[in-house]
Amino acid sequence: MISYILRRLVTAVFILLGASFIVYMMTAASGDPLWDLYGHPNAAQLIPARTEALNLDQPPILRYFTWLGGALGCLAPFTDTCTLGLSREGMEVTQMLAFAMGQTIMLVTAGTILAIVIGITLGIVSALRQYSGLDYGITFFTFLCFSLPSFWLAVLLKEIVAISFNDFLQDPVMSLASILAIGVVAGLIWYLVSFGKLKTRILMGVLGFLVTSGIVYFVLATNWLTAPFLGIPLIGLTGVLVAVITTILISGLRNKRALYAGLATVLVGLALYFPVQSFFRGAGLLTVIILCLVMIAIGAAIGFFAGGYDRGQGMRVAGITGFFVALLIILDRFMQSWPNYLDSGHIRGRPIATASAATPGLTGDFWIMGIDRFTHLLLPTIALTLLALASYSRYSRASMLEIMGQDYIRTARAKGLSERTVVMRHAFRNALIPLATLVAYDIGALIGGAIITESVFAFTGMGQLFVQSVRNVDPNPVMGVFLVTGIVAMVFNLIADLVYSVLDPRVRVKA
Amino acid sequence: MSQPQQIEVQEAENLGPMGEPRNDVQGKSQGQLVRQRFFGNTGAVVSLIVLLFIVLLAITSIGIGPVPGWWKWDPDATGTVVNGGRPTLSLLPPGLGDHPFGQDNLGRDLFAMTMQGTQYSLIVMVVVGVIAGILGTVVGGLSGYFRGWTEAILMRLTDVIIIIPLVILAALLGRMAISFVRSTGLPTVATVIALGLLIGAASWPPLARLVRGEFLSLREREFVDAARLAGASSGRIIFKHILPNTVGVITVNITLLMSSAILLETALSYLGLGIQAPDWSLGRLISENQTAFATRPWLFWWPGVFIVTIALTINFIGDGLRDAFDPRQRKFNPKKARERGEHRNERGDVDAGTNANMRGAVNRATR
After folding, report:
1. From the CA of B174, how many Å to the nearest CA of chain A?
2. What is the model's pTM?
3. Is residue B93 reached through a cis peptide bond, with omega within 30 degrees of 0 on the bond before it?
4. Are A458 and A355 in contact (CB under 8 A)?
5. For chain B, what are the domain ranges?
6. Phi, psi of B95, rounded to the nearest 5 degrees
7. Is residue A471 within 8 angstroms of chain B, CB to CB?
8. pLDDT per residue over A98-142, tens digit each?
């Protein structure tokens, strides 16, 4: 195993060297690094200055080795020799990279996680209901996601969703007819994607119509969009829902102890609602994390003492419920700050932002700044989720279908296990194994940034840094971005292979 | 695709189109079977028709190269802005009008511009498919068949290219290509073809890995051993015995690669790194017109609709091809599939996974 890892790492170093040489040469050959200075009034001083700073009088090969020498300095620990060169404007590439990486990670993380979760869920569901309306619907949807040009989607979100939502928020009134129309459309979608007998499908459609129009009516009638709230009743309702769903997924409703443990956790969460509010006043990220951990611990403890033949199940159900209840309480606190955010002078009632990572000049406590970040990340995250979701969904559908056709699934069914156990314990876990590779690749590629999304939403992340430097014929930042993405990609490819061999004992790495 | 065709073909022949055993067994070639299965797939056929329509429209309307088309406006011809440049296309009564897709603020006809963009995007797509297909098949096939040093060198080369982010490669190469073509004074179509060549040269590695895998498994099969014992040369084994068995995988993946290629080209042009002014690409049209969204939204809608339609139809065609090439795939019929039991014949869907993975690199690059 260790010799395998070492061999892979040595190969990786050589591949990186070769690739970095190619990239440097290509960047240097792609244009004239002085193009923007010709015709500049101060050209006589600026051209020699830049030539001096970037060693432009030397041939690119020599410059590459200078760069490589500086980059190798980064390997020596505790010395101050690390340099990835200067950009055209004379900035240290290492600093530019650090800033860009922060922006990129902030931008892509939520989108990637959502894409993984939603994509896998859609894939599994469509595999379990193969050839149903739901399956066709999801398949068409994923193909559409495959075919969406990212820049088009991003501009659409920006120009239509953000602007019309902000406009709507100025005067959030809707006629009864349009509420009913929304309900009808939703009911139709529910009807089309539901499966089973005609009667069930019609029932689902009607249910979809009622639920959707009810929610829309509730939101409008209570002015929820300008002053959202959850309060005890909604937290309780959602918490109970979460507890029931987690129980169905993890242990089945027949395990009454697990269900009661989950419900008890919801009660504890509700009891904590008021005491916690005073802690939230001067809160920061730490308070929020502590609350989540405490609720998970409380849930696990309740599950443990509820006991039963399988303590682990109860603990898991109640722990997960506790986590979600904590999230709901935190969400409620954010919602309490929403009206203040909306009325602040920088926002002026148009909350959904279309550019950059934060509202310039806005100050406030943790909650206000949190909302600000949310409104800025909302649209790019939607765009990234839609774009990344398709491959997860297709992949997990394929993998789940393959697993469901295996002999051990038939055996599990034949020995009388419930369908839930078969799907969740025998199939689902194994279906996730090949996805581990995909997830590792994707996380590896994540740091490279989302070039188009960054450009449309004016984030100054890795993608923007890279594109700007390519446009400017500025090799050092290009090399910096390449080095980071290359190393991360190689490391994660190795991790993907190792994880695969750990998860699937049939795959052994060649030692 | 890892089974030799001969065995599977017989199995498929014994079942008629409705799945019932058939008494009169007639011989059918592999090509006939594939064609039959492909044309039985409604989604794929509809997509094919739509795509052909778009191709014909793009070629005939404004003409290609020196050949003039039937459309009256030129992509670059400015004119008077009629009625604020609103689209004149109407369904009731059906009619094109003077400017069916509208005009921009200089009075240029959006239909002509979109057609030129579509034409160029399609050219890039086809060139990428051809180049990436040839390179990927040759590199993957050679390294999979000969193994040893050939494989080591070719696969390390693949590793080097795969690790360079596709956008870096395409952007830099595309830039070099355009400055080269400009400096030598070739016609504008040459820049488009050059862009396609270079995107193709950058996007073959995933295909090469896939083909290598196929060759690795096929070269160990009995029928290859038999051919070798019969004294067949390497060339004959590769072209007569192994390659025909990988045609399905290669075709399907080239198709899917092409659908990613069109997104990559439009994305590069959007960023200003692909097709440059004065030529129009669908991506460039969107990037030029996105600021006018509030006043002239049609300038933004039409090019986008064309990109989505082209990519979507190609995806569906690729999906249909995959089903058609897979010998284990029966003619698709949901009702019958349900009667037979839900969990047969999942092999085609498993390939969907590898495809998703293969397209991952390109898709990630265009996010």
Report:
1. 9
2. 0.83
3. yes
4. yes
5. 32-64+127-329
6. -175, 150
7. yes
8. 898 888 888 888 888 999 999 999 999 989 888 888 888 898 999
